[in-house]
Amino acid sequence: MRLNINPFLRWAKAGKWTEQLEQPEEAVSLLLSLVVGALVGLVVTGFILLTGRLAARMYPPGGSAWLRVLVPTFGSLVSGAFIARFFPDARGSGIPQTKFALFIHDGYISLKTVIGKFFCCTLSLASGIALGREGPSVQIGAGLASVLGRATGLRPPSVRALIPVGSSAALAAAFNTPIAAVLFSLEEILGDLHAKVLGTVVISSATSWMVLHLILGDEPLFHVPAYHLVNPAEFGVYAVLGLVGGLGSVAFVKLLLVIRLAFKRLPPSTVWLQPAAGGLFVGLLALAVPEVLGVGYEYVERVLDGDLALQTVVLLAVLKIVATATCYSSGNAGGIFGPSLFIGAMLGASVGALAHMLFPSITAEPGAYALVGMGTAFAGIIRTPFTSVIMIFELTRDYSIIVPLMISNMIAYFVSQKLQREPIYDALARQEGVLLPDHGGDRNEPEYLLVGNVMRPCEQPFPPGLDVDAALAKMSELGVYHWPVARDGALLGLVSEHALREVRFDTAPAVRDALPPDGNYPFVHVDNTVGHVLERMGQEHVELLPVVSRANARQLLGVITFADAVKAYGIGKADA
Amino acid sequence: MPDSPPAAEAAPPARANIPGLLLTLFAIMLLLYSSDRFLAQLEQRELRQAARREFQAGIALREQGKPAEAIDHLRQAHTLVRGDQEYALALADAQIAARHAEGARRILDELLAAEPNDARANLLTARLMISEGQFAAANSYYHRAIYGTWPADSQRSRLAARLELAQMLADHGSQQELLSETLALEDSAPESVDVMKKIAPLLLRTGSGARAAAAYRYLLRQDRSSGSYLGLGQAELEMGDYRGAQSAFSAALELRPNDPFLEGQMSRAGRLADLDPTPRYLTSREKFARSSQVLELTKADIASCLAGKNPSAAVRSELTEADHLLSKRVGGEVTNEMAEARLELAESLWVTRPSVCRAPPSDYDPVPLIISKLSTK
């Protein structure tokens, strides 16, 4: 038989092989998702194990009660000093930092941050700080993906695409829930369930989960009792649980943000000492109630077994809210995923115990409500309702829990959204001066309609002391009615021709006199769409908007005019 | 300001040394895997040690009769090492003893869901059912335990489970079921004094005097104890061999002199032996005298219940007939038929007793045993 090679020759001559080789980054990314999954799985498993063993040494059996005060105080003092001195980006949960990297820094997370996060979190979590390991794991995972991406020579867009890959691998290992990890990466990190990276995210999550099982075996995060719905009337109780979970979530988020703001107002020289305040606070609480120490998964398991009394679970829910909010806000390294599950389990058990006391024949044991409550608080605090449903489903592997979970999660999500508009990670980012993109935005816009591709540079913003007449003359020359005002590269506001004319006849008028007294000004970011620009222009009645950095709203990157926006749609005259 | 790329990082990426990178990665992953395995093994070892400590503390408290205090330690052991069935079972056992039925049920349900033939879980479930008064369900779980899978020494464990079931049936089950289990026990028990000591009283409770007597005789062959003589005496009483019972009680008294209970039993057996009209060796006159005495005692018992009350016509007629028979002067030859007539009347009167007397007869009253023996003849 003769081999017919003509089709191959035709294909080669047409240059198709060169087309395929032009996209080697896709192949590298796919391969990297496997490597990232394995590496992150190994690192996160090590992180979990190391934290556990260190904690066992810090709290030996039969140790003095005073250890409960001294260990968290000392642990947070040491880790706080290291964070302040060497690893400033290892502070907090890790989720906002991962989102900063994704949306602002082209997926850049330094190896130093990864190492700092690993060791500082190991120390602070082992010492009993009331925070969780999952958020830090996400930053570590995303950081490793970023480091690997850069090391293999990928371009920034491909490195960015690896951030959710690392996040899902980390969460799959930390929570032992691979599907929820994928969903979390898409729902919370990317904010887009239809993201193109789905394939690589799934691969890394599955790989990491396999590594976890290879090392730790088939042990689930929680041993949950079999779930069963006793009576359809229980759906009503689950709705009440959703309401309580939503209110509890809002209380936690608001408290955390208020305390965080108070800590941020302290002098910068105290930053290294602030985490110790959180450690001391949780230590003093633990002197009376040891259950508030650490993430408290063993107590979650007890409450799932229905072993804790109503008064105890109510007390633990309240104390954990306060302890976690204080520990996080004081700048300790640790996340709020685990504490969310703890708070949810306690709130759920409280509602369940009360319902079972009032209607014993038609309600399940409090443990069933604690299980659903875990998802409820997660949906209310983290605001990822889809992830929370799947996560609890993965923990129980019981289909019958889905409907009660959906009812209570959606109610908690709705209550939380109504009473606390801004999700916790966005609010924390804003406190850091970073504006994260709105997940509700239209992500299907073509790239040529993004502000970054349409804006123009603004090399000469008005200095605040510029004479009004000179400013008016410049605006007339440029043919604009608004123009940015900046001092030493820091944007101060947007001045209008109308406002300049109003102050023109004052004594020695300057541009600063025409700026709005409240200091507010409209702006857009490079990743906003032109449609969004037009919407903002309509709201603010301006024909020009400054384009600012997401990491710093005072950093002027350029301007976009109405004419630029319209031209992007192919309407209007071409530039001369 | 969060992690921002340095200027050098922001520059276009340089071509990477992929083979070198892969080699480095491989080495790092190997190192990580080794350290993870080491940490995992360390964790397993430490958790197992901690669990064992908690388990031992819990068991010690359980043995001191403090199940409620034991629960915390056992739960901790169970939480630390979930896979250890021994910890789970010990926790369930303590929870049953402390009347924490819900917790025990959850653990046992889990164990049985994983392995329905788990004999120890079935046995504990049976105990849980007893604590909740569900004796039929307990019976069923006992059977699953008996025929289930035991981790070690299954013969001894099965025997112990069956003994426990028989004990439960003796307290809460039917005579028939108890007899059936006790016979099965007799068949499956090895020649063991300890086991026979438990089986013999159960046989006695089933009303199988002959089997019980045989069991006690076996025990006496191994070890002459007052307990075995007492059991033998009770078995003889059950069988209606009052002289035999009297001699057994007497032997028991020799081993345990001045025991008031044994003395009471012996005097009762002696009285029964003197009253019993059924032995073949009795002469007609002697049988007649004893029959008259039985009738006399029966009539007296019924009459004492009737003090100040109006009996039914049938009872009154039988009492009148008894008076008549007892007051009739008997001259000449005494026949067995005369004795039988008195005994029949005594039996007939005794049948009316439940409708006339509220209180049951005293344990030391010989009449019930005599009448019972007559009715089985």
Q: Return the string of H and E elements of chain B.
A: HHHHHHHHHHHHHHHHHH
Instruction: Please state the average pLDDT score of chain B.
Output: 86
The total of helices of chain B stands at: 18
Radius of gyration of chain B over alpha carbons? 36 Å
Contiguous runs where pLDDT drops below 50 for at least 5 residues of chain A: 15-22
What is the total tally of β strands of chain B? 0
Order of helices and strands of chain A: HHHHHHHHHHHHHHHHHHHHHEEHHEEH
Q: What does the average pLDDT of chain A come to?
A: 87
Structural class of chain B: mainly alpha
Number of strands of chain A: 4
Please summarize what this structure is.
The complex is a heterodimer of chains A (576) and B (377). With 576 residues, chain A is mainly α. Chain A is built from 24 helices and four strands.
Description:
The complex is a heterodimer of chains A (576) and B (377). With 576 residues, chain A is mainly α. In chain A, 61% of the residues lie in helices and 4% in strands. Chain A contains 24 helices and four strands. Chain A has helices at residues 6-13, 16-21, 24-58, 67-85, 95-103, 111-126, 134-151, 156-175, 178-190, 198-216, 234-264, 274-288, 297-304, 310-329, 337-358, 366-381, 385-396, 402-419, 424-431, 451-454, 468-478, 497-503, 530-540, 562-568, and strands at 482-487, 490-496, 544-548, 556-561. In chain A, the strands form two sheets. Chain A has a two-stranded antiparallel sheet. Chain A has a two-stranded antiparallel sheet with strand order 3-4. In chain A, strand 3 (544-548) and strand 4 (556-561) form a beta hairpin. Chain B is mostly helical and 377 residues long. The longest helix of chain B has 46 residues, at 18-63. The chains are: A mainly alpha (576), B mainly alpha (377).
